[in-house]
């Protein structure tokens, strides 16, 4: 009997140590993701996102051990105090950070991996009334920007960045960025240069799920169409030139210039297009 009692007390003590280690990790990860964090006392006493995560660690333990009503009571207290609503049934990994916090909603069957970051106004919600899995699963190193909505039993793979106010309704492969309504994939992560590597080492993530060189999918599509039109115009000019050499009468029509239609970044840099015009030497070899 005494041996069983000793075993149970040792198991409880290990669980308590594990819980405090998780809380310590949650606090320390703030310094990697928020430049405004000054010291541990400041983070522990003034960050509502940390308070919400700490309270969830406790309410999740209560939920898993059958104290479901009590877990919901404490989660409602946390919601009132922090503005963050996390269902006690949600499974949250290590080093989870909610920046600013207000308006975040995390549903019951949500699963969140390690080193994930959420900003204010994020919803991890469901799209059905089914009792089973109905909320998203986030793998590791996911960043979701302010106001984004991730809905349904979908999977967001490792390293995904979801831009602010995006609405994601389908699973997302690893290493890509999602923007817009509905969410569009705008490409994977590029090989970083030395400057970006230094920033990544310092910050450890892309704030608000956005990067300074994030492409605009609409502008990229428009510029791709314009490039295609340029290539078609050049090909028509070549055809007309060939007809003239054969003696045909072809009228000369000056086509309007499309350069002014190109969409650019705010830095006045031309956006990379999805379709490239065919170089002159390739056209010659193709025609021959």
How does this structure look, described?
The protein has helices at residues 2-28, 30-33, 40-46, 48-64, 68-82, 194-203, 217-245, 280-287; strands spanning 85-86, 91-92, 97-98, 105-106, 111-112, 117-118, 123-125, 137-138, 143-144, 149-151, 155-156, 161-162, 167-168, 176-179, 184-188. With 288 residues, it is an alpha/beta fold. The chain has two domains: 2-209, UDP N-Acetylglucosamine Acyltransferase, domain 1 (3 Solenoid); 217-287. The termini are far apart.
Characterize this entry briefly.
The protein is an alpha/beta fold and 288 residues long. Helix content is 41%, strand content 13%. The chain folds into two domains: 2-209, Hexapeptide repeat proteins (UDP N-Acetylglucosamine Acyltransferase, domain 1, 3 Solenoid); 217-287.
Helix content: 40-55%
Task: List how many beta strands DSSP finds.
Answer: 15
Integer-rounded radius of gyration: 27 Å
Count of helical stretches: 8
Tell me the distance between the termini: 93 Å
Helix/strand class: alpha/beta
The string of secondary-structure elements, in order, is HHHHHEEEEEEEEEEEEEEEHHH
CATH architecture annotation name of the largest domain:
3 Solenoid
Strand content: 5-15%
CATH topology of the largest domain: UDP N-Acetylglucosamine Acyltransferase, domain 1
- The geometry reads as elongated
- Mean of all residue-level pLDDT scores: 77
Main sheet record: 6 strands, mixed
Regions with pLDDT < 50 over 5+ consecutive residues?
A: 265-288
CATH superfamily of the largest domain: Hexapeptide repeat proteins
């Amino acid at each position: 009997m005494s041996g069983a009692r000793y075993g149970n007390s040792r198991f409880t003590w290990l669980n308590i140590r594990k819980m405090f280690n998780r809380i310590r990790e949650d606090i320390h990860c703030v310094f990697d993701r928020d430049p405004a964090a000054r010291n541990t006392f400041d983070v522990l006493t003034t960050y509502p996102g940390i308070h919400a995560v700490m309270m969830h660690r406790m309410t999740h333990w209560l939920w898993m051990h059958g104290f479901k009503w009590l877990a919901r009571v404490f989660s409602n207290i946390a919601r009132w105090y922090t503005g963050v609503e996390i269902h006690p049934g949600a499974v949250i990994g290590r080093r989870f950070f909610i920046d600013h916090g207000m308006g975040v909603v995390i549903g019951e069957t949500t699963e969140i991996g390690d080193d994930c970051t959420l900003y204010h106004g994020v919803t991890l919600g469901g799209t059905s009334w089914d009792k089973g899995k109905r909320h998203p699963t986030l793998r590791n190193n996911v960043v979701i920007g302010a106001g984004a909505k991730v809905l349904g039993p979908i999977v967001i793979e490792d390293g995904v960045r979801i831009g602010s106010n995006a609405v994601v309704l389908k699973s997302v492969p690893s290493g890509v960025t999602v923007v817009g309504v509905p969410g569009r994939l705008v490409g994977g992560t590029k090989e970083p240069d030395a400057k970006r590597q230094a920033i990544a080492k310092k910050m450890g993530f892309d704030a608000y799920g956005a990067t300074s060189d994030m492409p605009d999918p609409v502008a990229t599509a428009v510029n791709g169409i314009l490039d295609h039109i340029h290539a078609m115009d050049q090909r028509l000019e070549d055809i007309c030139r060939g007809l003239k050499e054969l003696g045909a009468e072809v009228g000369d029509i000056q086509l309007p210039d499309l350069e002014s239609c190109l969409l650019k970044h705010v830095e006045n840099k031309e956006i990379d297009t999805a379709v490239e015009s065919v170089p002159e030497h390739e056209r010659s070899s193709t025609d021959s």
